[in-house]
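@channel sequence for tomorrow's demo:
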Amino acid sequence: MGPKVQHRRRGLRIAVWSLAAVLVVAAGLVGVVLWQNSYDMDEQRVSIRHGGHTLNGVLATPKDGRERHGLVVYVHGDGPIDATHDDGYKPLWEANAKAGYASLSWDKPGVAGASGNWLGQSMDDRADEAAAAIAWACARPDIDGDRIGLWGASQAGWVLPKVAARTPVSFVIAVSPAINWLQQGRYNLLAQLRADGASAARTKAAIAKSDSTRRLLKRHASFEEYVRARGGDADGMTADRWRFIAKNYTADATQDLRALRGIPVLLILAGHDINVDTVDTERVYRKVLDAGGALTVRRYPDATHSLLKQSIEQSDLKTTLTAVFSPRSLFADGFLDGQRQFLEDPGTGAQ
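structure tokens (generated this afternoon):
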């Protein structure tokens, strides 16, 4: 056997072992991803009839062998959100399951093949939808109708108290909720401009543009009028979105919150929220609900509006990698455990 043949065989062995090592590492990574994205609960697709339409939902139940469970009904924030929020809800559902609670969520109308159009809904429409889901759940033998509560984020802050006014609920978890639509919009605008380091001139122009939009809304202007007022540039606005805003821009939760008096409420606020004025939200919640002694406020200084860690959310790469390899680590420290602890005994811990 010549030296050239020996060299080729040695090179082949090295290549084979290198490939094997790569495959082992790849298999290990796949295993980690599958393990990290497996949750200790059972999931099933469900259908809920409401208003001539079908809500396409997911019911996640604990694997604890019990015949009946309490239930957390999820009310989405703004945007075209599906039942699992692109799997983002699953770590929260698992925390609920650990506390002995099932979780129910559904695709917004027009999302993931669902009928309808969520942009055609008012906050009252959304409350009616959630109330119908609760009625459906109460009819199930595996759900304890005396332990059904609500979870809602951001825009859901205008929906949660409306639901409670329509049907009895045992508790409410409000995550980054706003109080007044217009005030929240102005706060978000200014916070985003500060974060961008906008000049005084740019800030003044942005406020003037916002004020112009408010005047158009107040006089019930059409989408076509909005576009003309913008010099023909819709600036990302669509006709459906304009109608949605026109239908809901007067929303204010202050009076509706009275429906939550006496109900255990967990108010969750983030330290880096540029969408919602958390100081104003806490002030109003305390003013309306504190007298009943059932309000619990939890603040997460390292969290953004979505309750993700700021250090992760500010990087798209970090967000993607964490979502793939360690999705539970996306959320602010203590957030998932805090939700579980509240569910284990909603009537305690008020502060």
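heads up for whoever presents: Residues 42-180+251-344 form a domain with the Rossmann fold fold (CATH 3.40.50.1820).
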